[in-house]
Specification:
Blueprint lengths: L18 H4 L11 E5 L3 E5 L7 E2 H4 L10
Antiparallel strand pairs: 1-2, 2-3
């Protein structure tokens, strides 16, 4: 049977901003990814070990034109 709409088998989820604070083991909270607001890039993830923050727009951009990010 052929389905009338496709469902991506390679979809990704974006964690809610509070998940690394509310649900991570307390002993790791000081190293957990955090979200801060950057004046230029908006909300960004700050992740230990990465040289630069990761803009949320690059993580949660499914269906958006790359030129708008």
């Amino acid at each position: 049977m052929f389905y009338d709409r496709a469902i991506s088998a390679d979809s990704h989820i974006t964690e809610p901003p509070n998940c690394y604070i509310d649900y991570i083991d307390p002993k790791f909270r000081d190293r957990a990814p955090t979200i801060v607001n950057d004046p230029k890039y908006g909300d960004v993830y700050v992740i230990e070990g990465l040289a630069r923050p990761v803009p949320m727009g690059l993580i949660a951009a499914a269906g958006k034109d790359p030129k708008t990010l």
